[in-house]
Specification:
Layout: H1 7-21, E1 70-77, E2 80-84, E3 92-95, E4 102-103, E5 108-112, H2 115-136, H3 144-166, H4 170-230, H5 238-295, H6 299-320, H7 325-350, E6 353-355, E7 360-365, E8 381-385, E9 390-396, E10 408-413, E11 420-428, E12 433-435, E13 438-447, E14 458-463
Antiparallel strand pairs: 1-9, 1-14, 2-8, 3-5, 4-7, 5-6, 7-8, 9-13, 10-11, 10-14, 11-13, 12-13
Helix pairs in contact: 2-7, 3-6, 4-5
Amino acid sequence: MKSRHLATFLGAGLLGLAACAAPAATTSPTVVPTMSAAVATAPTSAPTSAPIGEAQPAAVPVSSINLSSISAEGAIMPTQDASLLFGIQGTVGKVLVHEGDTVQAGQVLATLTTDALDLQVAQAEAVLAGAQAQLTGIDEGPRAAGVAAAQSQVRSAEANLAQLKAGPKVQDAASMRAALAAAKANQETQRNNFSGAKTRADSAVEQAANALRSAQDNYSTIYWKNIELDKLPGDLPQTAKDAEAAAQRAVSNAEESLRQAQVGAEGARLAEQTGNQAAEQQVAQQQAAFDKLMLGATSEQLAQAEAALAQARSQLDALTHPTTAAVRAAREASVAQATAALSSAKYNRSQADLKAPFAGVIAKVNIDVGDPSSSAGAAAMRLIDISKLTAEVEVSDVDIAGVRIDQPAQLFVQSLPTTTFTGKVAYIAPAATVTGNVRSYTVRIAIDDQSNLLSGMRVRVTLEPAK
């Protein structure tokens, strides 16, 4: 934001004008610089140019300057600017718009996946239906079938508690002993069977090894015999060649038999190991079950049985005695609570849709399908309403007294240097914005013709003096 012209700067200007009027030597004409405030006020600090690399403010034509006008800088702003967020956490399921799309108020822009939300609504509806059914049942008399079922539950709970207190039955103990003895007998049988299978497999390996050695000896005998025969005049007889080939095949067959026997032996050892472990586990489980039975019921089991009996008696009492006002109030409260839970679930479901709060243009889309509904420091989308752009500038506290609603204004946009826009003051902030030791007021200018203007353009506004 610009402040008033400096007294020193004004003094320099006046000296220039005086020099032009004096009959002194010819001098170059003085160019009046762009003014940023009315010159009739007290001096502040000397004007400086924008730092290198920053955008320069829009130039005001010299012919349009009024030394008593007020100048301020700012930007072209949309009528409305909203950073949109989903109302709940979730995963983006659909993105229905792109940057630059024009949307209407209430239009769905993106949605979250809703499987979990739909399930919550269904569960809340079921809970509400159950609560309403219990409330309705208050005014219905107890049915004979319901009373009989409740009485049966009481008897069952009483019998279970009595059995736990009495300890294990004789027949149960005998049955558990028999099961433990059977598990031990099975363990011994399994151990013998696996041991015998392993012994037979080892014997098969030894037999296969002996057969291989015999086949190798036979082949060696035939081979060296044929070596001697081949030294004699004439060709080696075909029968000798066939005998050598047959002996060689016998060696190969014996080697394969030995390999298979070794595989079988390894399998027998593994089967013995796993089978014995399984049998031992079975015995251990049966022993643990028998020990538990003989120890009797624990304090926790007794407490659970007593609680089950109390609940069964309470249910029977509720069926056979008139409903009290307290019971009715409690069930009505349950209905109210379930209704609220359903409303909450439906509200959460509705928040899975990101809707446009007003008609406008999508300026930014920061989400894709599969993204979380929100990321730290970033909105899901940005929506702006550019149907009626305004110029928003900051006027110093020194100049703000000269600003009035409907005061005429000229606008000079840096991006459109050949065009001068006009408008009127539409809003003056009631309180100052303080940055360091600088105080300023936000002023919005309604623009008469916003052709070619875009949101965010830098603008300098010149206000004619208030009358």
